[in-house]
Amino acid sequence: MKIFHILLDWIARNLSHIFCKEIFQHRLILFFKSGNNTMIAKQENPQPQLVHRYHRITPLPSVPQVVHMDLVNACNLACISCWNHSPLLAAPKSRNWKLAKMDTELAIRLIHELAKLGAEKLIFSGGGEIFLHPDIYTLILKATLYPKMKLTLMTNLLACSDPDFLIQRRVSSILVNFHATNRKSYAAFHPGTPEKKFDELLEKIDHLRKGGLAIKLVSAVNAINFEELPKMLELASHLDCNIQFKLASVAPGTEVTMLTKEQKKWLWKQIPSLRKQAKLLGVHKTNLEVLGQQLQGGKEHNFPIREIGCYAGYYYSRIQTDATVHYCCKSIPVGNCASSSFMEIWQGERYESIRRSLEKGKFFPVCDSCGKYDLNYTVYKTIQHFFSPTQDGHSPEKTSTAGPTL
Ligand code: SF4
């Protein structure tokens, strides 16, 4: 049977281009339904293997669904648990690192290449605040020339001097850092920032929403704000935004912001009522289920990544300010775009060897605080659900054969 799998892998890799993608995927489904999934299920920790097999057999796209470009490292804020700018960091970033920004010509070349390859989503982000890049509006203009590639901005909004430009260019979505629910907690989370900046943030969000842009609030949950989640849901509803919660991971020096075991347990117990509240308030897109999974009744291990597997290498890639391409949002370099095209790196040996090694369960030490846990969990649940539809009574026919949409 092992030889059969090796043969199937080879066929998938080398001959899949001769099939229509839909037919190929239909065959793949038949393959799983024919009993191979049962065989896999007999093995220890079966689900990640099943999900990996799906990716191994499905043709690798010529570009990831989501590409994340870091435009700038400087920041106008200093969030208390930030890996790059927290005033508590044991080893603060160097001045040179903070001054780094992506070369505008390079950024424009990448935008064109990614759009032509068919990337579905481009994210402008950074080790700092994107609106501190001197050519940010030019880059937004260039990226929005390709309507098929959705542009997402990650920002704290305070340095955005022209919100109307974002409305005019119909930016697809904005992820706004949102870690507090009032002036006082805003100042506590962002030491050195005046309380009144909280009002400015709310005004800008309101303005952009009224301009018709989709906004998702992103909250890093830690010991400063963990009791504010009900209020955050209320504000999200009031502002007509979605909200996403992320358990803040801790950099050396910022341990004081980490949730204690008791706090985690307490918050984990609130998850069912928070989900109910979100539903009642009409805040439909939250990731409270994922947050609950991370909290796991107070377990110390925040990100049970080994239980679900890593699939980031099929959907996501990150390019840093110096053009280094990383496997994910952690420092796992796979190449540099200054000297080669993005596609060469994405389809190159180094990328493939990391995919293979993660498939075998060989994780990096940084994976214990996986920054793409949400993505991995979504992929895992979607594929698992597709091949085990009876668990919650849904029909497999209603699930896309094209894999998860992230
Ligand atoms: S941190 Fe590890 S598990 Fe998470 S996406 Fe990166 S490689 Fe995968």
Features:
43% helix; 406 residues; 9 strands; binds iron/sulfur cluster; alpha/beta; nine-stranded mixed β-sheet; 16 helices
The span between the termini is 33 Å
- The amount of beta strand, in percent, is 5-15%
- Tally of helical runs: 16
Strand order, main sheet: write it out: 6-5-4-3-2-1-7-8-9
Structural class based on helices, strands and sheet pairing: alpha/beta
Rg over C-alpha atoms, rounded to the nearest angstrom? 22 Å
Output mean pLDDT: 85
Bound molecules: iron/sulfur cluster
Query: What fraction, in percent, of the residue positions are helical?
Result: 40-55%
**Which overall shape is indicated by the principal axes computed on the Cα atoms?**
globular
Number of strands: 9
Outline of the structure:
The chain has helices spanning 2-15, 21-41, 46-57, 95-99, 104-117, 136-143, 163-168, 183-189, 197-210, 229-239, 261-281, 288-295, 305-308, 342-346, 349-359, 373-387; strands spanning 66-72, 121-126, 150-155, 173-177, 214-221, 242-247, 316-319, 324-326, 333-336. It contains 16 helices and nine strands.
